[in-house]
Amino acid sequence: MPPRARHFCRLWAGLCLLLTPFSVSRADLVTEWNTLALTTMRTNTVAPVMARDLAILHTAIFNAGESIRGGYQTYGFGTYSAPGSGTFGASYEAAMISAANTVMQSLYAASGGSFTTLYNTQLSGIADGQAKTDGIAWGASIAADLLAWRAADGASTAGSTPYSPVGTIGYWAQTSGAGALLPGWGTVGTFAIPGTGSYTTSLPGGTLSNYMLTGQYATDYNQVKDIGSSFSLTRTSDQTNQAYFWAAGDGTVKMTGMWNQVAQSAASTASLSVSDKARLFAALNVAMADAGIASFATTYSTEFWRPETAIANGDIDGNASTDVDLAWAPLIASPSFPEYAALSSTLSEAAAATLAHYLGNSMAFSLGSDINGDGSIDMTRNFASFSQASDEAMMSGIYGGTQFGTAAMDGHTMGGNVADWVVNNNFALVPEPAGALLVLLGLATLARRRRGSV
Description:
This protein is mainly alpha-helical.
């Protein structure tokens, strides 16, 4: 459809929205799907995969709604073209519901009954008719196009990519019986950033061996050795709580899910409309998905060892300021992938920066954490801003003994850079139809006044 015709259709749709009453207005439509998705992914999905799948879910919801409503520019990237205008007169809410159900039925078919229940419940609030029928069909087509595009992104083979630890000083060694996690994830196709090359980072000194000879490495080493030990005498009780709170281990909603829960709370506080919620969650999860990909690209190209391996080899690392401690153990079990850059820090700042862009940074919220992975909340913490929560998540890996300070800081920077790109290049307002609508309404008002004065 030519741009001018598309703008006219969106203008006409905008007028219809003003003049036609809705039988349903569900600002919680998006968060209901988000909540169910987190519950579904909690037990078997790791954080980078969760971010990818949530990005598919929420871009489908967003595109289904906005291609009909026309308030924001629809999402497109690479070989996936942003959809044009949806079926004229279709219910955009029905389209969003249909898109969500189609994505989740495809990605998590084993939980299909739960999705069908939510799908039917939400659709029951929309009056039957052609608008509803057309919306359902349009939403399903939007989701199918997105799923077809992402089917070739490399995610399905990222976990089986061959990888063998190098096995020498400075390089990552497995610290558990688990194999290396997602060694091919750094090559998964991105959602918004133009490749990972501009976002990956490197250790001070440029190489792993150079970094280990620096004063910065000695500082990082001795910091985590002191404060991240399982029996640290200097870590405060609050720092211990932070380590456990943000650990996001097996059985929990992971770091990705925790930030989606933050977004749900913030969106409710801000009383966002269903369209604004769809945009917020699409941007949030696209940013975290790309941050996770960039983080793993850095992780498996650097292959730096975890603190517990480093501290057990402090006498042979070439740095005179790093003393060995063969009995040292971290407070939190190390994840099964190389250390640099910190995934939790990268994801957290990508999320916090995205939320701050749309809602402002200074928004108070509470967040609960499931520490033992049983599905219940074990600890709740209060925050005055998104950045405060991100900074706390960044430091938690040091307190837990799984991260060096440089990895935490560099991951934080990486996540913020990814978020900046995502929010500055996607999900923008569509100014022209809105402006035209205001002009049209102004002319109509002027005409009525003139008729009244005759």
